[in-house]
TrEMBL record:
Binding site for heme: 384
Keyword Transmembrane on entry: no
Organism: Capsulimonas corticalis
Protein's recorded name: Cytochrome P450
InterPro entries in UniProt: Cyt_P450, Cyt_P450_CS, Cyt_P450_E_grp-I, Cyt_P450_sf, Cytochrome_P450_monoxygenase
Lineage, opening ranks: Bacteria, Bacillati, Armatimonadota, Armatimonadia, Capsulimonadales
Amino acid sequence: MKTTLSAPPGGWLGHLPALQRDPLVFLAECARDYGPVAPLRFPAMSALLLLDADDIERVLVTDHQNFVKPIWLRTAAVRRLLGDGLVTTDGDDWRRQRRQCQPAFLPHQIPAYGDTFAALTGRMLSQWRRGQTRDVQSDMARLTLEIVARTMLGSDIAAQAGEIGEAMDTVMACFGAKHRLFGLLPLPPSRREARAIGRLDALVDALIAEYRAGGAHQSDAPLLGSLLSDPDQDPAYVREQVKTFLAAGHESSALALTWAFLLLARHPGADARLARELDSVLGGRAPTQRDLPDLPYTLAVVKETLRLYPPLWMVGRTAVKDGVIGGFPAPRGALILTSPWAVQRSAQYFADPDAFIPERWLDGSQARLPKYAYFPFGGGPRVCIGQNFAVMETTLLLATIAARFRLEGSPDQDISPWATMTLRPPPGILMRLAERGAPRSVS
Ligand code: HEM
């Protein structure tokens, strides 16, 4: 067993300052300087960063019972947003919750959401005009929020989506700011954050009350229907689970789409190939979920985007008992970090790893990769419950939007990712809408 942890610079804080300063650079440096396991040290805690697909599979899948969700999900800031919902709980509580939420994500259920995806995207596009410049991230966040509310809760939140999105953004931004320095300390919320949470709770309570008053049929609200089917269900739990799904069910999909448009704007060759596929399959009509098997390149764009910009850039666990991983001791309480960002950009697994090449998903070569060289949705029992929903959603939305518009960015725009709770582009990036077929004004 390897027992000597490399001595990190930075005194008692260990690797924490480097991780806080620029987490993505830090991860890249670890991948460069260490072998398959990077032993790290944080105040009062040791940690292992796993860079090998087989070690990652062991922690997330094979030995999952020895690893629970990490300490940062127990911090006050995260609890305030997600409560004790499906993302944050462990053990029997988690198992009961997962069983309760699963029916909304059964394989036969997912295609039924396609019409809603298409209808709400069509509603958004009816407001879009060529020549407009738009904050695409905020448009995508609004659209995916409307989609998750309509499909899971049976609510059309067109009127409230702006306010719900803003309140969530405020809480996330407060977490992001704290996370850099004090994320693990049990600090009370700032006044701004407390106000946003109060507002969010009131909006969510109103959606639940609307359902109870008979606003939607249970089959139109599979998640909320299931949560409320038990008359003794604790109302606070229902509210926290609804907040969990509103947050987890929109943010990552919105980011995947935003990154896809930013990448396509910088890769005219890929954009042209996407346009050709959409044109030849759809011939000018809007796609439906039934077209998806005929849109392999569109799906490849989504997969490649999730490889380069995985919205959840870090997936962590805490060891519940002493063990050894990759030859290093992983004592009880050690933080075990896996990073889709670091592994999916590793030259060990992907040729030309930093380049955007959707074609790599079409030649069959990826089938030879170890399973956990690519894991944007995590893995094992805690794999994203919305994985199939999200793949269909992002592919169908990308097809619907890209068939009508080309989104143009400015080549000197800084699009460096910002690693907060999720991997975001810099806020407020604007893109210009050009109609398909019109000459390209910015490359
Ligand atoms: C591109 C979009 C998405 C990405 C990349 C993504 C990624 C992930 C990842 C990596 C995890 C596992 C985290 C861990 O193991 O610690 C996760 C969990 C989860 N995701 Fe997603 N997700 C996406 C979309 C969605 C959607 C659309 C929903 C719901 C409608 C959703 C709901 C959840 C929930 C509730 C969990 C916790 C599951 C559990 O622990 O049992 N996600 N997601």
